[in-house]
Amino acid sequence: MAVYYTPGYAQASDQPMTHARILWRNLAGTISASSAAEGRAAGRAGQVDTASWWQPQTAPAWWRIDYAAPQIVDAVGVAAHQLDGVTVRVEALVAGAWVQVAEGTPPDRSAILLLFPAVAAAALRLRIDRVAPIGVIYTGQALAMPRAGYAALGMLDLRRTTTLTSYVSEGGQLLKRYIQRGGLSGPCEWRNLPEDWYRASFDPFARAARTEPFFLASRPKTYAEDCVYGWVDASIVPQRQGMGNLVSVGFEVQAVGHE
Question: Largest Cα–Cα distance of the chain, in whole Å?
C-alpha cells in the first residue's frame, strides 16, 4: 500500500475515501533529525527535489519539523525513499506531548501518503527503524475532492513512461537494451465541481501547482497503491459546464517512478 489512513480520519472527513486526496501545501518550519550522514542533512528532505536526500547515520531514527506556531495537520507525504519494508511512524507534538497519529510499512519505494484526524501540532516527527534515504517529506492538510472521478483518473501508478535505448549490430542482432529514463504519467479529470468550492478550495492548489509538486492519491480506499508524487507542465485551467454553476477541470500529471 502507498496510502495509510486511520479509521478516525475516514470518520472525520467530509468526503468518502473513494475520493481523491491531494497534499499540495507543504508547511514551513525548522527541520532537524536524530542524525545525518555526510552530505545528507535533514533539511534536504524538506525540499521539493528528488535528487537529494536526508539519511540518518544510525537507526532507529527520526526526522522532525517544528512550526513557528501550532498548525492544523492531517497528512504527511513521503517520496523518493528507500523505505520498502520499513515501518514509518508519524508523531505529533500536541499540548506538549508526543502522540502517534499514523503508521505504515510500505512494500515498495512508491510515494507514501499517511492520513490521520486533524491535530493542532507544534511539531511533527517521522520515525523509521532502518537507515534509509528519504528525498521528500511534506506535512500539511490534504485536499479532499468532492467528486470521485473514477474513469477520468488515469491509474497513475500503472501508467509508466519509459525512454528505451537499444544497441543493434550491423547485422541486425540485438546486443543490448536498457531503460534510459522512466517515470509515471497520466490524466486526471473531475466534473460537476461547484464553482464556489473550486474558487475557495481547488484554485489555491491550481496556482501553487505551477511551481510546486504535490502528492495525489486517486482512490485511497479501493486502490491504496495508486499514489504518486508529481507535477504538471502546464497551468491547470477549469471549464464551465454551462449548468448549475458547475465546472470541470483536468490536467496531465508527471510523476516520479520507483522502479
Answer: 73
Confidence of residue 214 (pLDDT cuts 50, 70, 90): very high
CA distances from 40 to 23, 44, 57 (A): 25, 7, 10
80-93: b (≥16 Cβ within 10 Å) or e: bbbbeebebbbbbb
User: Would you kindly state where each structural domain of the chain is located, as residue ranges?
Assistant: 3-144, 150-255
Distance, CA of 256 to CA of 259 (rounded, Å)? 10
What are the pLDDT digits (tens) for 171-183?
A: 777 666 655 455 7
Average pLDDT, the chain: 90
pTM (whole model) above 0.85 = yes
pLDDT at residue 189 tops 50? yes
Please report how many Cα atoms fall inside a 13 Å half-sphere around the Cα of residue 209, on the Cβ side.
Answer: 26
> Which DSSP state fits 9?
H
Query: Which of the following CATH numbers is that of domain 3-144: 2.60.120.260, 2.40.50.140, 3.30.1020.10, 1.20.1050.10?
Result: 2.60.120.260
3-state secondary structure of 120: strand
Q: Which own/partner pairs from 81-84 qualify as long-range (CB within 8 Å, at least 24 positions apart)?
A: 81/106, 81/109, 81/112, 81/132, 81/133, 81/134, 81/135, 82/109, 82/132, 82/133, 82/134, 83/109, 83/112, 83/128, 83/130, 83/132, 83/134, 84/108, 84/109
